[in-house]
Amino acid sequence: MLTLPALLLLAAVLATLWTAWRSWALPPFPGRFNFVAMQMSACWWTTAAAIETIVPAPADKLFWAEMAWFGIVCTPSFWALFLWSYTQEELAARWRLVPVVVGALTWAAALTNDAHRLIYTAVQPINDAPGAALDYSHGLLFFVVTIYLYAFMVMSIVVTASGIHRATPAYRTHYLGFLVAMAVPWVANVGYVTGNLTLFDFDPTPFSFLLMGAVFYWLITRRRLFVLLPVARDALLDAVPDPVLVLDADGTVVEANPAALALVPDGTPLGRRLADLPGLSALSPRDITLPAPLTLESDGTARSFEATRVPLTSGSAGGRAAAREVGCLLMLRDVTHRRRAEMRLEDMVRRLDLARLEAEERLVAEQEAKRALNGFLSMAAHEFKTPLAIIDGAAQLLLMDAEVKAPGMLPRLEKIRRAVRRQVNILDTCLADDRLSDPAFALRRDPLDLPALLRAAASAQGDAAPGRRIELELDGCPARMTGDGPMLELCVHNLLNNALKYSPAGTPVRLRARSEDGGEKGPDGQSQLALSVADQGIGIPDSERERVFDRFFRASNTGTAAGSGVGLNMVRRIAALHGGTVTVDSRLGEGSVFTLRIPLGEDALCEDGMAGMSAD
After folding, report:
1. Among 14-28, 317-331, 459-473, which range has the highest average pLDDT?
2. Cβ-proximal residues to 290 (8 Å cutoff; 6+ apart), any chain
3. Rounded to whole angstroms, how far apart are CA atoms 432 and 424?
């Protein structure tokens, strides 16, 4: 007959069945099989207890009490296996044999108790009322099994406590719920075994499963037990933009995120071996060197990946069982954009190498052409200088003869000689830039009659510009200095030529030379020659004044006046070789003053020629 105890036990059966069904319907979570097996074992135990309360005959009650032993043994055993799998690591399937085998042996011993009396030594109703509960006197095997089951319960408490300590706040409620669900049946069972607690004259443990079911109902429906963690893991896997596949120990794909599913054009990769998947089979050998490059077709375009493998192990190397690999996580990092950038960079480097080789070839050709041109210019200069030297020699002989026979011819003969020297200077100017660029070029160290050199240069420039006046101020000019006469004369020619070229016809050009002593000495404290050329010409724009000594630079206001932009650059380089400088002071539309300063001491001359000196 259905009594209140029977109704409570049947409600507990429904609670455990609902918990088992709801847990199995959830996404897979660690220890799911063990948890469902624990619920089904509790259902077995509670069902047997419910039938025991319903049947009236003592023999029937004893039979169902003996039938309950399989569930009694399996319930705490599977609970301990579940907690270990959920909080530590997934246990191998062979561990499930322990509760099944022990439970089956205990169940067999209970059903054959009449033959050995190891479970129950005596059984009798508690009173004479029909359907009265039985009073059991327990044997040795009962206490052995009880100690075995309590060992599992102690292990469960330890594992759950460690889980609480390590868990994040979001999961601590779950572990506290596990402790409550575990503590209620255990306290009830301890009270019954010690003889201090019964409920309706029955073992209160099966009744406690109703409260345990309520706890699990709250955890599953309100606290998302077994749902949040798998969902979070799935969401994390799905959110990864790169393909990720989970392989078991045999190389079969057991899980894949959407990015990985898109790589298999002929269907899903789940349940198929990696070696059978198009394109991915190259990653199946375990001895492949990782990270490995991989190219796959996706949406009609080639995509480049970099594959890495992360082993998935079970067990702990620090425990009794060594860690064993149960599978791996295969991650394909999409490096398509990086690979394309690398290819573009490689192509650019290849083009730059080709351009460099072409530039080097052109430079070699240009240098060859320049050497040929220099050779031609040297030959031409030699060919020109030879007749000029003959003319100058003839003019000198005529001068010697004219001093006696025709004094009136002397000015004309001197003019011929000045014209010859002007032509020689022009040839020297043409060759000077190349000579100065030669690293082997070195200055001559000649004793110079400086006033004579300046007068000759001014006379030659005056002959080249008839009607123009060059004023000489040589009162403070040093009589002697050491230097390269032709180079210094070239400087004076360039400065005078520029002054005459860029100043009006009716204005004079002033050439002044003096020795600077006292407060205006060179960088080493020695006296220096200050040679200045002043004109009243077009001047130089302020923004371009610092650049007039740059090679090939010409001021923007030079107009159509002939020039190459190398003259002032040569002046600066020759001054530097002599240890000096050249400066300019200019006002637009009013004129310019170029000043060449050269130390008078011989030790100021450059010892290393043009080596290491830039043309710019």
Report:
1. 14-28
2. 307, 308, 309
3. 12
Pick from 472, 460, 450, 549: nearest CA to 497: 460
Q: Please list the alpha-helical segments (H only) found in 167-203.
A: 169-193
Q: What is the DSSP string of 533-548?
A: EE--S----GGGGGGT
Task: Show the tokens assigned to 96.
Answer: 């499930």
Query: Cα separations (Å) of 488 from 517, 535, 599, 608?
Result: 21, 20, 13, 18
Return all residues near 474 (Cβ < 8 A) that are at least 6 apart. Answer: 451, 454, 455, 512, 513
| Encoded amino acid at 163, one letter | G
Contact criterion met (CB below 8 Å) for 604 and 580: yes
The whole-angstrom separation of Cα 195 and Cα 179 is: 24
Q: Which residue has the tokens 């998947």?
A: 277
Q: Is the pTM of this model over 0.90?
A: no
| Residue where the block lists tokens 């610092």 | 546
Please name the residue that has the structure tokens 């206001």. Answer: 557
What is the dihedral sign for C-alpha 218, 221, 227, 229? negative
**Using CA of residue 566, residue 516, residue 483, residue 386, what is the dihedral sign?**
positive
Structure token pair of residue 377: 């210019």
pLDDT tens digits for 303-313? 888 888 888 77
Q: Which of 218, 246, 251, 219 is nearest to 233 (CA)?
A: 246
Query: Contact, 566 vs 433, CB < 8 A?
Result: yes
pLDDT in tens, 112-147: 999 999 999 998 888 888 888 888 899 999 999 999
